[in-house]
Amino acid sequence: MSKFLIEAEDVCLDVPVYQPAMRKLLSEPTRFLSDLYLSRSRRKAIRLLDSISFTLSPGERIGLIGSNGAGKSTLLRVLGGVYPSSGGKLAVNGTAKGLFNIQLGMNAEGTGLENIYLRGLQMGMSLNDVREIVEGVVEFSELGDDIALPVSTYSTGMLLRLAFAISTMIEPDILLLDEWIGAGDARFKQKAQDRMNQLVDKSRGLVLATHNPRLMKKLCSRGLVLSAGKIVFDGPVDAANEYYDENIVANKTRISVVKNVQGKTA
Amino acid sequence: MFRDFLESFRKNEYWTYSTWLKFGLKYRKTSLGPLWLLVSPALFVAFLGYLFSSVNGRPLDVFMPHLAVGFITWTLISGIINTSAVIFQARRSEILQGEMRLTDLVLAETFSGFLHYLHQLVIIVVVFVLFKIVPDLYSLVSLVGVALILLNSLWITLALGILGARYRDLVEMISAVMRLAFFITPIIWIPVDGAGGVLGAFLVFNPFYHFLDLVRAPLLGAQVAPISWIVVLTITVTGLLVTQLLYKRSSRLVPLWV
């Protein structure tokens, strides 16, 4: 047994994508059709994660920060065992579970109660486990008797509350969070936040992907900055946030400033 | 693969209950409910039975039961094969959640096909009552036939599901072949000496015929030909072994492909 919860060494992930031969779709509609019939789209591998190396010790809380498309969610899915790494070594000791998609498997025709069962079973619970959580979910989501109505009649807020209540019933060793989930009105938001904090406290390790430096500072003990599938910084939270602000956010603004200037002179 | 299937059988609550629930939800708002499953095949068997018994020149009480058993069982087989190449794409969100094994999803799909089949069996019963056909003890062999179809469904769904996730052309190919297979398999015609022309002579090479006959012949008071047993068992064993190789090699990559 290793002393780390997660041990990643040079983990890579290549994902196949289909690319149309031409990118400018609407400027030449006929070309789009001819490419389609002559099957000119190409299958090509894109490297989404590139030699990722880090460890997660028991009790440690890692925050992943990075711009959109930097590979944060993808990395979480690799840690959760959904995507197989294409290279490198990855050891995960304990159950790593994620909250990736809180609306997974909701069936609009089914009642709230039926959806608790559907969703619970899909999260890998046994029927008995689900039976045990039902009461807690109904109570937490504050749906009351509405739980017997089809979820298609629910308001967005009710739906979110139900989804949130079911999804947060997991108790993994390593919690993988893709963005902090808040749901509902101001009062429920507070309740949701407490529940999330509880979830984090109960887990032995946390990996949180986020855009929010403040939240990261509050929850995490260590920060990883991800850029284009690579870890460009690994260190204390404050330093990571600083690095992110200076090198990633600033870079982006600089580029757009340059573009603006060019636009004006052209 | 075998270990994953065993594990899925042990932890069967997902694929039994959630399939059952979804099946119920699908028909909740209709007034006939799941009985709608009977309408299309009942119309088909009734009308085509009359029409094709004269085309085939066979009396109605011979042709109708032949058609009913053949068509209903064909619906099971073709349903399994037609959906297999897209099941993993259709269940993408479940795969990406990471809790379900592919074998769980395959079992859910097969179970759903079986539920449909159970409903449609009513049509066979009605036809048998109308034409006063009394099954004998040997008819129980039919159950073995259905069990073998379901067993084969496991590897077919898994193998075509994996291949279909990687090669999106597969589903089109399958639907083209299955349409043809319906006509070259003796469902709306009866194979006797000379009937079916060239097709009749080559029937032995049609795997669907052997599977179908395993269910149909015992119910209609005929013996299953030894060649049918040999073909079906060979396909079952070979299919399971080949799929195991494919599963070992490619199952991990399916989440990236869907």
Task: Write up this protein.
The complex is a heterodimer of chains A (266) and B (258). Chain A is α/β, with parallel strands linked by helices. Chain A is 41% helix and 26% strand. Chain A is built from 8 helices and 9 strands. A 6-stranded mixed beta sheet of chain A has the order 5-6-7-3-8-9, sandwiched between helices. In chain A, helix 6 (186-202) links the parallel strand 6 (174-178) and strand 7. In chain A, helix 3 packs across helix 4 and helix 4 packs across helix 5. The radius of gyration of chain A is 22 Å and the shape is globular. In chain A, 35% of the residues are buried. Residues 256-266 of chain A have low confidence and may be disordered. Chain B has 258 residues and is mostly helical. Helices cover 76% and strands 0% of the residues of chain B. Chain B contains 13 helices and no strands. Chain B has helices at 2-10, 13-27, 36-56, 60-84, 87-90, 92-97, 102-130, 141-166, 170-184, 197-201, 207-219, 226-250, 254-257. In chain B, helix 3 (36-56) crosses helix 7 (102-130), helix 4 (60-84) packs antiparallel against helix 9 and helix 4 crosses helix 11 (207-219). Chain B is globular. The model of chain B has no long low-confidence stretch (mean pLDDT 90). At the A-B interface, helix 3 of A face helix 2, helix 6 and helix 13 of B.
